[in-house]
Design a protein that fits this description.
Elements: E1 11-14, H1 34-40, E2 45-48, H2 55-64, E3 82-88, H3 92-102, E4 107-111, H4 115-127, E5 132-135, H5 141-152, E6 158-161, E7 174-179, H6 186-193, E8 203-209, H7 211-222
Parallel strand pairs: 1-2, 3-8, 4-6, 4-7, 5-6, 7-8
């Protein structure tokens, strides 16, 4: 279809459109190629959809898709069924287990800053009798796919992951999302807690934070190619 300009395409829809912007939480250069598809089917309506789009991200989406004066629709972002809890991190493992005990038998995601933290926490939870698997970019495609399928099919209750996990995950019955570490941005945080309670039922987002997390994130920014931004 993509190589047949005469194909009757009437609408092109881009999901997770924040990926078009390097100011989005999960920039993917491949998304920049979508503008070429738009050019090929110039008569097609184009929709770009995302749960989180700051003014800068919206501007990037418009520019990179070569949209001419598009209509922009901004809905409310409140998710009243998700209870947001923010706590200082004193004994992170104990606080995570306390949250898991409140959600006994339920599914959820725990996000960590690094791959090493993911693997370490997964092993600690498994040794404590919890049904948990790990997910990060250091695992093979086959292992990641297997772990994701086990989680989606409720064969495993807890997914411990880095930001690599989540794009396109639409599991309706996740009752909690725990942030073991401070996320790098509010946008990233909001994307990740949005994976809880997609069925509209009461869910829980627990964020643990420490001064050490702030130091790690600042170091990460300073080592980036464009530290000023």
């Amino acid at each position: 279809i993509l190589h047949n300009a005469s194909a009757p395409i009437s609408c092109i829809t881009i999901d997770e459109a924040h990926c078009i912007s390097e100011w989005g939480h999960d920039f993917r250069p491949g998304y920049l190629e979508i503008s070429n598809v738009r050019a090929q089917f110039s008569s097609a309506v184009c929709l770009a959809l995302t749960a989180t789009a700051t003014a800068q991200v919206r501007a990037d989406i418009t520019a990179n898709l070569r949209m001419q004066a598009p209509e922009i629709f901004i809905a409310g972002f409140n998710r009243p069924n998700i209870f947001l809890e923010v706590r200082p991190k004193r004994n992170a493992l104990r606080e995570v287990i306390a949250c898991l005990e409140k959600h006994s038998g339920e599914s959820g995601i725990i996000y960590c800053f690094s791959r090493n933290q993911v693997d370490t926490l997964t092993e600690k939870l498994k040794s404590s009798g919890y049904s948990a698997l790990n997910y990060h970019a250091g695992l093979s495609d086959e292992v990641r796919r297997n772990h994701q399928q086990q989680f989606i099919r409720d064969k495993v209750r807890i997914m411990v992951a880095t930001v690599a996990f989540g794009m396109g995950i639409d599991k309706p019955n996740d009752r909690f999302v725990i942030h073991y570490d401070l996320p790098k941005s509010l946008e990233e945080y909001y994307q990740e807690i949005g994976r809880a309670g997609r069925d509209g039922l009461a869910s829980h987002a627990l964020l643990l934070y420490s001064a050490g997390d702030v130091h790690k994130i600042r170091s990460f920014f300073e080592e980036a190619a464009d530290s000023a931004n």
